[in-house]
Structure formats: C-alpha cells, structure tokens
Amino acid sequence: MAVKVIFHVDENHKWELALKNAGNLLKAVGKNEARAEILANAEAVGFYRKKDHNKETAELMDDLHEMGIIFKACNNALGNFKISKDDIFPFVKIVPVGVLDLALKQDEGYAYIKP
Amino acid sequence: MAVKVIFHVDENHKWELALKNAGNLLKAVGKNEARAEILANAEAVGFYRKKDHNKETAELMDDLHEMGIIFKACNNALGNFKISKDDIFPFVKIVPVGVLDLALKQDEGYAYIKP
Amino acid sequence: MAVKVIFHVDENHKWELALKNAGNLLKAVGKNEARAEILANAEAVGFYRKKDHNKETAELMDDLHEMGIIFKACNNALGNFKISKDDIFPFVKIVPVGVLDLALKQDEGYAYIKP
C-alpha cells in the first residue's frame, strides 16, 4: 500500500525544508509507492509566484512535480495576498480552503507532516 | 459526516493565523458540519488572558466560540505561567495535559493542524 | 489501550518544549500506558550530539529514555550535518528517512504532535 503524506507549509522560510522532505520521501519509497502533497496556505502561497524564482528553484519544483508531488495552494490565501492564478506555476492546484483540504486528506488516511 | 479538526497553538505569534484558519474552516463547511477545537499549550495559553486583549480581539474570539469553536488550555501550562482560571476567558475549557488531549482527539478521528 | 504519540522536532530551539511535552505525557498516563517517540530531522538532529550538552540535559534525556521515550534521528539529516553515529547519545535510534518514519507511525495509529 502506498505511503500517503500531506506536507503543510504556511511560512515562506519553511519551503526549502519542505521540498527537501518531500523529495527524500519519494526517493525512499519510489514514486509509485508514494502519494505526496504539499499544501501551502497563509504567506506560503507567495512561494508559488513564478517571477520570484531563479531558474534552479523553478527546475527543482518542476522535477518534484514530475516525480509525482502534488502542489496545492489555498484560494483564500491567494486572495489575501492578491496573487492571481496567472502569477503562479501552472502545475499548482488551487483548493478553496487549505485547512479543509488538510482535514479531508487526513480523513483519507494521509499522514500530516509540518516541516 | 462532520469534518473534525484540532488546531494546536504553542506560540503566541501563531494565534492570529490559528483564529483565521478556524474561522475559514467553519465558514467553508458550516457550523453544523464541523467540530473545530483550538488547543493551546506552552506560552500560547497566555493569549487567553482577558485583560491582554482589546475589545476587537475579545469579540472575535467570542464570535468564534459562538460559531462552535471549542477553545482549550493546557492546565500544566497555565500553572507554569502562573495564570489562574479567573484570568482567562470564561469560555475556555481547561484540560489537564494539552498533549494528551491532542493525542486523544486524533485517536477519535480529529485531523491535527499546526498553524 | 496505550496512548501513542510521535513528536516531530526539526528546529533546535524546539527541543526544550518537546522534552517537556513528552515528559508531561508520560507522567499523565504512566509509562506502561504510553508509547512516545521523538523524531528529529533537519538541524534538530544536532541536539543528539553528546559533547554539546551539560550534565543536566544529558541526565534529563537519559531519564526520559528510561521512562520509555524512544529518541530517533533521521539518517539523511545526520549525513547532511556530518554527524556520525559515535557523536550522538547511544540510546538514539537511527532511521533512514525521518519523514517516512513519521508517515509509517501515523499509519500505525500514532498521533502526530509538532511542538
């Protein structure tokens, strides 16, 4: 049975660690044996803005997305920080309410990890 | 089935986000479809002191309580910070050991969220 | 049925609170009724270095270990911080990937708490 994890990020300075954590998990169990998501809310949705990233970070996120990691953004938070859908990486999935998503995933058997 | 969440706060600077998170959850699913609790331990129990709040914050907490959010304080932490039952908002429920409460609620199927 | 908790520490300044939390949990339910683990990854594995501690902290950790708390370190993190097995307290259990361990324990019914 696949290992299922949802990582929660709500502070920008935690993104680096969260990306490393998620990558290590996938490397350890293999992409077919893991369901890994990263849910960003509060200020951390700002990290999804394409223009704020250098090429290296953009490629890392793209690689992780290719490896199967699902990136999610809280729509409430996007609104609060005046970030539009066009500003963020195209692979980011927008959910209406971040904390509701965190609750629903745990209810589906996902482990919760807050880096 | 109701969405069940326990929010954990142990740092005072996280209270604002925790209150916003809990409010957004209730608005999203409706008060009858949510069981939402906020458990404060360590320094975060200090936020429950009535006298430290302006009218606006006190009303916000009262509103959230009215919407069904259960506020809890760890009794160990209240003791460590020399805060008495009379100092805190009357709607705060005191539990003997905060981390035990967090464990028991997760065992009852509550999702854990640390803002 | 025993109360099962895994505490997650990835910042050094959170260790003091984590040790207090774990100790309070064990005192509350008794060592035979609790399974408590502390999983350290990222910079927090550095706290396990024997030489960095005064006698008091070393004794506190030893006492908690005697009370039944299982201390774990992420091997990835030990490698990143160039810490060898010989540098850390002998009672620390090394796991290959910290976040995988956090996921597996939650899958076994352990509650997750991030102090």
Automatic annotation (TrEMBL), chains A, B, C:
This is DsrE family protein. InterPro entries: DsrEFH-like, Sulphur_relay_DsrE/F-like. Gene3D superfamilies: DsrEFH-like (3.40.1260.10).
